[in-house]
Amino acid sequence: MFIIVVGGGKLGTYLARALLEARHEVVVIEKIERKAQALAQTLNAEVAQVGDGCDPLVLEEAGATRADVVIADTGDDEDNLVICLVTKKRFAKPRTIARVNNPKNKQIFEELGIDSVVSGTEIVMNMVAQEINRAKT
Amino acid sequence: MKYLIVGCGRVGSTLAKRLARAGHDITVVDIDSSAFKRLGRDFPGKMVLGTGIDVDVLSRAGVERADGMAVCTQGDNRNIMAALIGKHHFKVKTVVARIYDPMRAAMYRDFGVLTICPTTVGAHLMVNALVQETYRKLPYERHDVDVVEFVITDAMAGRTVDEVTLPGKTRVSVVVRGDASLIPDGNLRLQPGDRVVAIIAPDAEPEFRKLIAPALAAR
């Protein structure tokens, strides 16, 4: 599959590495040039692209017209929402996956038609709750 | 009416004060409590501290009972998100958002949010101030109707308002003559130098320009 990841922070870097190891084609769009350079060094030069993933032209340049999936994983929910909405609006093909930092936004994103919404906070909270329950019994 | 304003910057606070002065019930939301100082001491509305992209904050601000919502924080994406939450989650009837990026502003209209793009409006006004054209579009935030202004030349003088109107497609709304703004009927005879403001359907523009061609010629 061809996967575009918007946001090259820690999560984006690990995600891209795992996807590359699983033999997927990956492009990471990162706004901050320094971070994009680091990405190019740790992964490979073709993967990293500097730009604002909210801009349809940047997405197009990254190959959004033929991408199977666009993942928005920046630390700002409003940016992730816009990345996915722009993708849905401009490019017919890719499925959109968004990370939400504030679990309350999960429902909002789903209402607005994002295909898949992942809340890291919620996942960790559930895991912790499970561990606490296990410790109790 | 009850209005919710998200973002208490220069635009948000001015808007809030104007609407409050007109007797409306206003609630302002901002993440920075010092922003509320812009409202002045005697502001009669409610102030709620928090981010406009949080459903609980908007609930606390009474979004469920709001007749309209205006979003004007510093970030385009934050404005888009807050406006979409208001429109689609809370079903607020009228939602308007400020979006600086013209490309995004055009896109979000399709999501049912009214957008005001200060970039486009500002550039438009600057062009109008710099270039004195005989025919120009006035800024108006709708896309199915244009507001235009043209100046009556000697060649056009003596025509009536009806003679510069395409029935059903255009309508003259104001004739500015010297210091006076006249709301004309169809029989008003136009004089050289009159500035005529008309409402026109965008697809009628070529036909309309042809009709008033002598006004557009040499000046």
Return the average pLDDT of chain B rounded to an integer: 91
pLDDT < 50 stretches of chain B: none
CATH architecture heading of the largest domain in chain B: 3-Layer(aba) Sandwich
Instruction: Write down how many β-strands of chain B occur, each being a DSSP E stretch of 2 or more residues.
Output: 11
Can you characterise this structure?
- The complex is a heterodimer of chains A (about 140) and B (about 220).
- With about 140 residues, chain A is α/β, with parallel strands linked by helices.
- Chain A has helices spanning about 10-20, 35-40, 55-60, 75-90, 105-110, 120-135; strands spanning about 1-5, 25-30, 50, 70, 95-100, 115-120.
- Chain A has a six-stranded parallel β-sheet with strand order 3-2-1-4-5-6, sandwiched between helices.
- Chain A is about 50% helix and about 20% strand.
- With about 220 residues, chain B is an alpha/beta fold.
- Chain B folds into two domains: about 1-120, Rossmann fold; about 130-215, Regulator of K+ conductance, C-terminal domain (Alpha-Beta Plaits, 2-Layer Sandwich).
- Chain B contains seven helices and eleven strands.
- In chain B, the strands form two sheets. In chain B, strands 3-2-1-4-5-6 form a six-stranded parallel β-sheet, sandwiched between helices. Chain B has a five-stranded antiparallel β-sheet with strand order 7-8-11-9-10.
- Chain B starts with a strand and ends with a helix.
- At the A-B interface, α4 and α5 of A face α3 and α4 of B.
